[in-house]
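Thread: Newbie trying to understand structure tokens

Hi all, I'm a second-year student working on a class project, and my supervisor (Dr. K.) asked me to get a predicted structure for one chain before our next meeting. I've only ever worked with sequences, so writing a 3D structure as a token string is new to me. If someone could post the tokens and maybe explain what I'm looking at, I'd be very grateful. Here's the chain:
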Amino acid sequence: MAAALPGLWYCLHLPASLPDLIDVDIWMLKAAQNLRLEHSILMVPIDCFEEDVLGEHLQRHHPVVTICPDDLLDEARQRASALGFVLPTIPYSQLSDATLAAQWQAIHEHFIPDLPRLAGEVTLTHRLDLAPLILPHRRLARQMGWPTAESVTQDTSAGEAFGQALRGQRCLATWARLEREGASHDEADRRFRRTFKEEAGRLRVPFALGLPGTAPAYARMAYDSEIRRRTKPQPAVSPDDTWSVTLHERSDHLVERAAIEFAVTHQSVASSGLGLMLPTVPPDAFTTLAEIERHFHTPHSSAAVRRLLTRLNDAAQPLWSEELKAAIQCASYLAVYSDFPLGLLTMPGDSAPLCTRLPVTYRPMQPLTRMVQQQLSAAPAVSLDRSITVLVAECIPVSDPVGRISRQGWDIACEASAPDSTTLTITQAETLTLEALQRAVTENRPDVLIISAHGTMVGNMAALVIGDKPYVDLGLDRMPPVVILSACHVAPRGSGAVAITDLLLREGALAVLGTQVPVDVRRNAMLMVRFMVYLAKENTRPGQFSTILDVWHHVQTSNAVNDILDGSPSLRAWATHTTINDRSVLVEFMSSRATGRIRSPHVYEDTERVLGEIADEQGQGERVRNWFRRPGYVPESLFYVFTGRPDRIHLTPLGLLVEQARPGR
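---
Reply by user tm_fold:
Sure, no problem. This is what the structure looks like when written as tokens:
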């Protein structure tokens, strides 16, 4: 993997798609943020660089150029020629600005010779630590006709690079809006300053974050003392972290850093968004997280969970740079490359964790080689805009009380989604053995596989219990794009356990939802019912949510009221059995009182306030607020994580998303 890094980095500077080569309308540049136009980069050992291995893959792509270490040039050149690559094979020693410019020109002349070339310089980005910001911005600048020569030096700060990239995104949003509204050139010039200020406050752009760090418990188990001694924490910015054809020969920690930066930059370029490198997660943050996860295995209290979350925020305080806070303010979603659940942290100024503020998805980094391989896989977008087939695989015997409650929950889900059952179909299957599960998936070919099972630990591996046996490898012939693990603690992060959620991504799942801690089966059932209902509604009446990640974020955040009411039987009874305006408190809250009053960064605080106001009208305000404090409640909905690429599971047709950005719409 290390030996491939110079070539991989170079490839990010080549065109990702044909529109990169020509001048396109500004509204298209903004719409591209919904399309994820990734570079298609194939990393392959020289012995596998042949027709028998790659023939089927190359039939689906246009083989353009091969890049290799110098000592493999002769063999790679022969094999590339036999496979029909368009451009001459390039060895590392020839990778330069001049070579890059020549390849852009050659690609243009080969594929679209009749169209005029896009003006502007094409040069390599040398600061790897700032590349997730710089490279997307320079590609945008070339399309917009702005200066593209790299002005970044060893002294450039993250703040300077971030400010330049963010201004570029605001300008893009401003011009795209003016173009969409049909403003003439003169009118656009007059309105630009005012529109720019308006767009600055409403800007939403995809962000990728690189957050290095390994759980100390995992490091002690996996590495000897000498390796641990050599391991160094990574700063967010490292001016000496530069691109060269020999970057793979640097020290281990710089090679690993370059691999993480490559993945984050690849993602930020693909989404036409931005990216940031963050410093290494402090070890104390992992240690506190492990304590939180252990605490949930015992009878847990609201006060203890709150104290532990406060300790977690204190331990992770060094992560909160001004750039990170500004990025979160304008991010449409976060793709976090990390083994640490950043979404559990509360941003300064907020009262609820980050995952309530905006959608968060994780790309696990252990092992790092696999992470880079998965990043390169360029998974195609999956569209579920016409119909959704859901298979619920029940792996818990009905004799188990949890199994009985689980089945009741799925019955409710089927009933609740019945009004939209023409587009969302839920099939329940008894799968008490691995073979039964494999057979059910083969027969039903679901879009969404929900596995209802117990979670367990086998050594340092978080596994599923199917029947009475633990499994981390399901061996499915066809892995559904979305897998939901309705099971306890299948995605722990504090101890660095190998999680089945991550292993399912390796088996081919595009997105996997799992839990960090043991969860109450009744509360989990309520979450899953709501998830299915919103999926069905979006499928029937599209427009509110673009991706399955957006649906999950809404379900997770809006479930705060249920987390609060489940704090005690008294609270739940008050909300469901007492009335106001001839409706139960819960219905009153959800149907009218909460509308427009719940801020996502303060969702629990605001929900408490609105419920308290209703209680005041009943003369029970002091009593209800006391229940909020004693016994209190646990925000269980926060301890679910979506890994992989749920942002690639579309519920709105991609064509419609593009059309909505077209001028005159």
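A couple of things are worth pointing out once you decode it. The two ends are 46 Å apart (CA to CA). The first strand starts at residue 67 and ends at 68. Feel free to ask follow-ups in this thread.
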